[in-house]
Each structure stands twice: as C-alpha cells, then as structure tokens.
C-alpha cells in the first residue's frame, strides 16, 4: 500500500529496514506482549474484536428509531474520531452535532434549532470531569428536563465502567450508559462506543469498520517486510532524525476533511513528550499539519515545494471512486478541451500523482498510502494503522505514547480562574502575575 | 490589542522594537509607496476604500431575492476568505456551498440536493484556467442549462476584468460578471467581490467588514509604536530567527473555525519562497498550523507545552461575547459546583488565559490578539491586519510575498497526465519515471 515515492533524500529503503530490523521487531513484540496489561493503555488493539460491545450499540440504535438529531457532547478524543468517520461515510438520516467547545453563541444556535422530542444527547467523558463537556452536559440536561417528561430517555452516557462523576450520576438517576474500556485512551477510542454509538446513528457500516481495523492488527503482527505500521513508523522516525520536525498528513478527499484533525491529536498528543520512560528530558514530537488535496495545492504546496526542507509529507489516495462524474465539453471553452470527456476522479488522481512527483523533484520527501476505495473497511484499516504507527513511534522513542501530562497545568489554571474550591492559592498567584 | 505575553524567551520587547525601527519603517514606507504600481500586487490595500464596487455587489444581491442556495466554485484564495467569514457571521437564509475540490462524490451529492430554480452559481477564477474550478464550472453550467430555460440568470462570474477564458466566455454569452482587480492576488481578495458577493448573500454586514479593514490600514500607516502589523511581523520575524519554524494560529472560537485555513494560505503561500528578490536561494517560510481553542487544548496543547521549542503561538481572543449562556446547578453533580452559575464565556475566557499562561510557564512563546467582540468590523480588521503582517514579513525577508512560482510544476505534471495538447514530452518523461 506504500507508493514508490519513499527514498528521496538519500534514504536507501531496503538497507534502512534491515538496519532497524532488530529495533522494530523488539518494538512489535513489546507492544503485543504488553497489550493485556491495563496499565499500558493498549486496549485499543483488542477493541475491534469485541463484537458483543458492537451488538449492544446496534441494539440501542435499533430501539431509538425516533432520533433525528444526535448531539455528541465531547472534546478531543471523545469527538474527533466519530466526526472524521461520520463526515466521510455518514448517510443520514440522523444528523450528528458535535459540541466540542464552550463558545456560547454556537451552543445557543444549536439549542434553538433542535426539537428536543427528536433529539438524543450523548455525553462522552471517560473521567467525567472534563470542564467543557460537563458544562455542556449541565445545560443540555436541563434543556431536556425542562422540555420533556421522559427526558432520561433522551440522554445516553459514555464513560468509565466504574469510576467518575458521570458513572455515579448515571447510577443514581438510572440513565443508560456505555462503557469506555479502562485501558483505552481518548485518542485511541474511535472503535469503542465513544465512536461507534454515534456512528451507528449515522448509518455507518460498523462491521466493516471493525473488520478493517482487525486487518491492520494482522499487519501489525506480521514479519517486518509485511508490517506496514512498523514501516511507516520507521519512515517517520528516520526523517525526524534528519531534522524534519513537521509531518504533513494530506488525504486527497474532501470527505476525509476531518481525518487530519483526528490524526493531529493522535500524533501530537501521543508523541509530544518532555520525558522519556527513563525520566530523561527529551522533548520529543514532530508537529502534524493538516492538508487536503487537491484543495491545499492552492494553499500550502507553494511552501511545501519552495520553503525550508523541514517536512515529511504523507499523502493518502484512493485507487477507485465510489461513483464518478464526467466533465462535459462546452462550445466556446475549447481552451479546456483537455478536460472534456475526462472524469473528476481522473483529474483528482492526476493531481495527486503530479503533486507527489513535483514534491519529490524539489527533494521534499513524501510517501503515499494508497487504499482501494473509501468505505468503512478501508477507513477502519487506516485508523487502526495510524494508531499502530503511533504506538511504534512511541516505542522507537522510548516514551509513553498513552498519557498527556502536559495538559494538567492549564487545567489547574482554569480551575483557579473559575474559582474552584482549593485553588485559591494558585488564583492569587495568577492574579499577582496579571492574569485574571 | 496585544497581550503582555510577548517577551518570553529573553526577547526584550522595547529594545527589540528600537533595534528594528529603521528596518520596519523602511518596509512600511516601501509598501505604501509601491501600492499604486499594479505589478506590485498591493491592490488589496485600497480595496476596502472602494465603495462603488461594494454598492454593485449589494445591488446584485437585492435583485436576487429568489436565491436559496449559493454555490461558489473556487479554490484557494477564491474560497477560503468567504468560507471563513461566512462561517463566523453568516445569518442565512441563503446557504453557501463551496466546491473547492474535484472529488466526485461530494459534488454528486450536492447536485442531487440542490433545486436549480433556487440556486445561484458563482464561479471564481482570476485566470479562468484553474483546472479544478473550470471542471466544476463545466458541470454546473451544463446542469443549469439542462434544467432551466433562463439558466444564464443563475450564473455569475468573478474573474479578471479583461483577460482569460472566463472573461471571453462571459462576453460571448452575455453573462453577469464581477471584476477582480488585476493588482489583487487570490489570497488577498476577501474584501473584493471574490469575497463580498457570496458574503452579501450570507447576510454579512459588509460595510462593517470594510470599515474594520480600513482601520487596519490606518494602523499600518502609523508610527511604529502604534503600528500593530509592523509589531506582530517583528515578533514573527524574531522568533523565526530563533529557529522556530512553526507558527500556530489559534483563535478561541468555533465560529472562527475556518479562519486558520485562510491564514494558512495567506502565510504559507506568501512567505514560503525559494528565492529572494535578489535571486538568491533562501528557502524562507515558517509553517502555519491551525488550532482552535479550547478544542485543541485536548489535541495539540500537550505537544505545544512538552514538545520541542520550535513554535510561536498566536492566540486570538474576544473580550466580550455577542450573547452568553449560564451554566445551571444540578443536584447530584456538586463536584462540578465551580461551574454552577458561571457562564460559558467565563469558562472560555478562563481557558484561553490559563493556556497562554501555561505555555509561557513552559517557555513556549505566545502572544494574544485581543478583539472587543466577534462582529464584521473586528473580523474585517483582523483579516486586513494579517494581510499587512504578511506584507511586512515579505519586506523583512526581501521576498516577493505576492507570487506562487512553486505551484507551476505540479500544474504542468497534471496537464501532462490529463493529456493536454503540447504536454506529450512531459507525459512520456513521467511515464518513464513510473508515474501515470
């Protein structure tokens, strides 16, 4: 599935693979061996095998045929996966809305637009303490209660199976819940009910999505020459060692417009770490940049070709369209005759290849993941492949790819500024520094 | 309008400004002096003063009260500005659709959804030769013609006033047109009819937008201590000199979700250049990264805080909401009592300040543009301010910020792969290299 465009900038691919074989095999074996230890947060490997959880989700969806609007209250990993897959393959008729910020105006617009009788609210927070999500939950819960006698039927909670505020509230109030496996972190949760519940309402082929993810698992277990995530991780690793601190993720598809946002979180939050597992300060992390082809050929490619050679560009392209559209001939526009009779997919395909080649000519390293077509199976494969690539990179860099210690201080400052009890000292300190 | 958070990492702001005063004043004077030379592409400075062009746009909009869907066919600078402003402030009832890619499936979905009788198609290409836009034009023109006797009334063309395929076709067919001033490049065109025509249909206060842009012009003319774009350009310049090759643009607003995409094109395409004006190979350009607060606190801030110190972060924050929403208290959720009775805007504001402060603590340089509120005036100011900042950076780096030579080779390869006449030799060459 890799194009031939790897190996620019003097990387001899077969010998690089040989030279790193031991490192990659050790990483692969370590990940597979550790996967049943909940403290390692590798639960996402086995989630696509969990058909019972999928069956529960599908039963719930069938029992809620009255839903016309599904509002997901979640932020980061609780929203990005379903948003990406829903935009790519959603077929309706249920509309998905993601409340993933606390700016008041869009929330007010949404509340005024929705009919509570036909709305289901799915609040998603593993800890149950995410400030943004919980603020939205407080408002949407009240809105349902004020408008509906049976408001509890319009609420479904996705959270830790045992711990946290949302779990205890759901138990006290008798609300329907789905569990996030304790060993699955937010950015690795798209194939568990965090993603699948809303995607079931969007009409996604979830069996296909999970089958694709299982296929990626197979490849991640395979010997090195067939182990695609080990290979793409190695490419990413080698170019980061060559000083390229930027990784562009560029699918050639408008339907995949939110996939880079999901990838950005997966990559940046997993790999941007101050300390390695040995406790040394290392400050790892390449910065993922979002791009969409062909659109960004008219926005970012100028920089990618002529700017500093500080990037590795990962394109994603499909070999076949789901459906195609012919470009008609028009009298008076003969200057465009090279388009006449061709199809939109042919043009998209030519642009993707032309851009990869033009970047290579400028010695800007790039490689392309080519997928047969854009459907649930191949998208499920791609998501799980990228999770594996991230896990491999974490091993190569000897860091914990599954925590996010760097967001804690911001949360503490927020608590202080919001006047949360116990944070008075910090609030004083911030005030003294002119923040408030 | 700048927060105090500049000056981390040992930059002493007042003395830096003094040290660069001569350079900045020279840049400012050069830009203002060159602005009436069409070859300099500085027409965007005067566009906000052009009230006659705005009046034409508004008259056209009034005469087309029947429009329910407006389809914009355009890519890059022909789409990103209107998309950003429309998403931020659009009030309907006309729905805007942007066809800015050639993936067939979303275009087919759109064609099946639209009612041609209530649809207006605005094709935008300055040259009239953009492959993606013209392919879409050929299809939408045919769709209108096949469905409507008066199809020409449903088509409006925005292009060069004299040159190009679209201009000659419009003349031959008697189609309505709006002109893109020859001295205005795509990524600087949001305040001319490229942006204003669709924004008029979206109900945007265009007088306010242009008034804000004129305010930014005033500041760009002012002495250094009041010249905000000269100052922000200097910050960007100083940190790029310190090796920070990434510039994060992070508004705290979901309504501004497309503004970073507009900024990415403006910044990357203008400043990513292989050669300077003296013809030397320089490979300039920092890479702009899109982020939205608070959303990306749960996606990218882990990397921004703990990862390599290779970034400058530019946040944008509003001092006042247009409308606010209170967070209610709920029995059984007392663990969240720090949110009870507070407002969403208070939370958004606290998160923005907390993040700026947490980044500064980690010695990750950041500064905040603070705007009174999100309305047409302040958004017009922000757009024009960022255009000025870009122009100043072009001067500081002695590059042409207004061309894009790096996208030509990709276009040539596309022509060859699409079989355009005259490109046979290149097609053979690509085939020999395994591309096809």
Walk me through the structure.
- Two copies of one chain form a homodimer.
- Chain A has a five-stranded parallel sheet with strand order 2-1-3-4-5, sandwiched between helices. In chain A, strands 7-6-8-9 form a four-stranded parallel sheet, sandwiched between helices.
- Chain A has 436 residues and is an alpha/beta fold.
- In chain A, strand 3, helix 6 and strand 4 (155-159) form a beta-alpha-beta unit.
- The first copy, chain A, folds into two domains: 4-13 and 25-32 and 224-396, Rossmann fold (3-Layer(aba) Sandwich); 43-208, Glucose-6-phosphate isomerase like protein, domain 1 (Rossmann fold, 3-Layer(aba) Sandwich).
- In chain A, helix 4 (80-89) runs antiparallel to helix 11 and helix 15 (408-417) crosses helix 16 (424-432).
- The first copy, chain A, contains 16 helices and nine strands.
- Chain A has helices at 13-19, 21-34, 51-62, 80-89, 104-113, 131-147, 165-173, 193-201, 206-221, 228-241, 259-271, 301-306, 344-361, 376-396, 408-417, 424-432, and strands at residues 69-73, 95-99, 119-124, 155-159, 176-179, 246-251, 287-290, 311-318, 366-371.
- The radius of gyration of chain A is 23 Å and the shape is globular.
- The interface between A and B is large, with 126 and 126 residues.
């Amino acid at each position: 599935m890799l194009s031939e465009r790897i190996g620019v900038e003097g990387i001899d691919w077969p010998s690089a693979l040989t030279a790193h074989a031991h490192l990659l095999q050790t990483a692969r074996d370590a990940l597979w061996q550790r996967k049943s230890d909940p403290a390692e947060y590798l639960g996402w490997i086995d989630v696509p095998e969990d058909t019972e959880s999928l069956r529960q989700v599908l039963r719930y969806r069938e029992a809620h045929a009255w839903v016309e609007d599904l509002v997901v209250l979640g932020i980061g990993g609780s929203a990005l996966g379903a948003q990406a897959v829903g935009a790519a393959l959603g077929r309706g008729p249920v509309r998905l809305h993601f409340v993933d910020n606390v700016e008041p105006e869009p929330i007010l617009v949404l509340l005024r637009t929705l009919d509570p009788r036909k709305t289901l609210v799915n609040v998603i927070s593993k800890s149950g303490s995410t400030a943004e999500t919980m603020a939205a939950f407080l408002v949407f819960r009240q809105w349902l209660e004020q408008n509906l006698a049976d408001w509890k039927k319009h609420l479904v909670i996705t959270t830790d199976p045992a711990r946290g505020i949302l779990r205890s509230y759901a138990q006290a109030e008798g609300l329907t819940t789905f569990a996030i496996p304790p060993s699955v972190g937010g950015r690795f949760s798209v194939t568990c009910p965090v993603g699948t519940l809303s995607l079931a309402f969007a009409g996604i082929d979830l069996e296909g999505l999970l089958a694709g993810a299982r296929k990626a698992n197979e490849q991640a277990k395979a010997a090195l020459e067939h182990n695609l995530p080990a290979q793409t991780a190695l490419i990413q690793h080698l170019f980061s060692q060559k000083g390229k601190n930027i990784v562009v993720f560029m699918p050639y598809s408008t339907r995949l417009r939110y996939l880079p946002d999901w990838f950005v979180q997966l990559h940046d939050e997993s790999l941007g770490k101050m300390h390695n597992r040995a406790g040394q300060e290392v400050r790892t992390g390449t910065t993922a940049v979002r791009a969409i082809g062909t659109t960004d050929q008219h926005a970012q490619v100028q920089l990618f070709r002529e700017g500093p050679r500080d990037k590795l560009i990962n394109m994603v392209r499909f070999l076949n369209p789901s459906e195609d559209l012919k470009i008609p001939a028009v009298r008076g526009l003969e200057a465009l005759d090279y388009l006449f009779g061709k199809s939109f997919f042919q043009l998209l395909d030519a642009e993707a290849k032309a851009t990869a080649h033009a970047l290579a000519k400028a010695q800007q390293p790039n490689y392309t993941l080519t997928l047969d077509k854009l459907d649930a199976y191949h998208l499920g494969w791609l998501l799980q492949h990228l999770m594996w690539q991230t896990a491999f990179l974490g091993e190569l860099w000897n860091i914990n790819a599954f925590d996010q210690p760097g967001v804690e201080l911001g949360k503490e400052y927020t608590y202080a500024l919001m006047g949360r009890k116990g944070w008075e000292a910090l609030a004083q300190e911030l005030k003294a520094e002119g923040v408030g």
